[in-house]
Amino acid sequence: MLVWFLLALGAAIANSWSQVVQKWAIFLSRYSKITIAFVSTATAALILFGVSYFIVGAPQIDERFWAAVLVTGILNTLALPIMLKAYELGEFSSVYSMILMTPVFLLIASPIVLGEMPSPIGIFGVLLTVLGLWVITRTNHEHTPVPNFAKGNLLGLAVAFIWSISVNFDKLAAIYSDQFFAPAATMAITAAGCAIYLFATRRALIIKTSYSLAINNNHRFAVPKIFILLLLGALMALGGILHNSALLAGFASYTIAIKRIGVLFGVFWGWLFFKEKHLFRKALGATIAIAGVVAILFTN
User: Fold this and answer.
1) Which domain covers residue 87, as residue numbers?
2) What pLDDT score was predicted for residue 21?
């Protein structure tokens, strides 16, 4: 149980950083959102395939793997550009908090796809976690300077719904291969989908925009812009390994609930990097969410 919790918590931290870098990529890199998705997922796929082949060893692949990874790959191809658009329109911590609805959607999807039936205490813990982090989101509604606040949140909610479906196939793909090869294949499918779209619409893979949206003048980087995309890919690779390892060690709904604690880090990153407000009021939501995590842990 401790190993599962540490894996899920590690995935939460890695994911919170990848969300920050996604926001930076949108505002600082001068690349289109689909290009950002393509470069980052291609980088993640190369890293994961390298780890799988040279360090861990190629896994035995069940024939059912291909259907599972194709489904989650397609779903993630849809979700990533939507999330990038949400970060472009909305406030970082608020959009990120929308993914906390994933456990709620997952409670409906997991029994159907995986046959996993969380205990009543587990359900209570998941819902309590979501409630606490919903409080974090609510604090952002007052005096927000973001004109497309609601649109960003709606797009974030759409991503949460997509992920509530894809996470079940993430687990199936990992079961039918391993926790390294499965996310590598998923990232490769996502990168391929983005590449097809870019070639079909622009006849090129690397598309630059004519503008750069400033987050804050104090947070511009004196590094090559492509480095931001490569860093994003590395964080995605790390998060994918930890995420699928946790899925193999515990219930999908519980894993996602713990992983979503990354939003607590996101609240702090939003204040630190993007000058967002209401940090202490959001701490109330964090306290409620942590209580939900404790309830989930005590179910086992």
Assistant:
1) 2-298
2) 95
